[in-house]
Amino acid sequence: MNPLARRPFRLAANRVNYLLPGGEMIDEFLGLPRGSAPGASQMWVASTVQSTLPGAADSRSYILPADGGGCLAEALQRDPAAFLGQKHAAAFGADPGFLLKLLHSSQRLLVQAHPDRARAEKYFHWPHGKTEAWYVLATEGEAYVWAGFRPGVTREAFAALIEKQDTAAILGCLHRFSIAPGDVIFIPAGLPHAMGANSLVAEIQEPTDITLRAEYIRPDGSRLPPESLHGGAGMDALLDCFDFSCAAPREAVRERYFLWPERRAVPGGVETTLVGPAATCCFGLVRLALTGPCPRQNPAFRVLLVEQGGGELSGGGVTLPLHQGAEVFVPAGVGEYTLTPTGKGLAVLECIPPSP
User: Fold this and answer.
1) Could you tell me whether strands 284-290 and 174-178 are parallel, antiparallel, or unpaired per DSSP bridges?
2) pTM of whole model > 0.85?
3) 202 with 308: CB under 8 angstroms?
4) What separation, in Å, do the N-terminal and C-terminal C-alpha atoms of the chain show?
5) 159 to each of 81, 147, 221, how far by Cα in Å?
6) pLDDT by residue (tens digit) across 241-260?
7) Structural contact between residues 134 and 202, judged by C-beta atoms closer than 8 angstroms
8) Rounded Cα gap, residues 201 and 98, in angstroms
């Protein structure tokens, strides 16, 4: 067994350039000057996924040299059961089953939707769909998301708007919602959506880089290649991946897709379930806000991202320092670990894999 599978280890910050400008709020989150990574509007955490953008650089995560170094995906492939657990490896192989991202765009994202598993396999020969959820970490000024079709939007009418690239009308087909730090929005496969500027969002999703877009003209007027709408799968595939049955009044959309986090006291602080099994079986996301030591059980494996503060993680015979932006992989071989805050406290996002 790889010795690394017996202890928690840290991952290097994995910045990704992705179509739209931005990333300054990620720079700030990592304690860097704004503009330190021009164009890197995303950060992929514990990624085993390669970007599908033409000419994209490696978007997989790498282990910090101080903790052993090397590519996370390659380590998992060599011994998936040791890192992910026997049951998970039997169901998913070396695939963690989810991906966590940080997103900050200085422009509105293009109106888009993602395939479910059946359509991902049918059109893209990929085993995962792309259900996702957003947790708003921070905003600057007014910030918005768009989600769900308004009543009366039909496949035929929407297709005509895409053909004309009437971007104002395309956006007008969706409901707009103001967002604030702490909001959690569930985006199942098929739901039309877009994210505005001025927000830093943690997105947990199925591990797929497949996006179907209704627009190729960006908000600043620049243009993407028309094939960026559907990645070569064609307009029928694009329209099939948009769920027109979700059209509903605004408050019904809010009630369905804005989640209500559940809080409970745990040793050392408060555990908040941001995304639980009532929303999806694809992944889970928990937030720990701690002022004292918090022992945690590890029934499979976990990916942690420090949201705020500092402290340390101990388990598997090691103690790792934690700071805002640090990411830690806790292998299945580590049965329990303890998070201990220092200073003003510690807030950690804990990613939970799908159940086998």
Assistant:
1) unpaired
2) yes
3) no
4) 22
5) 45, 18, 21
6) 999 999 999 999 999 999 99
7) yes
8) 16
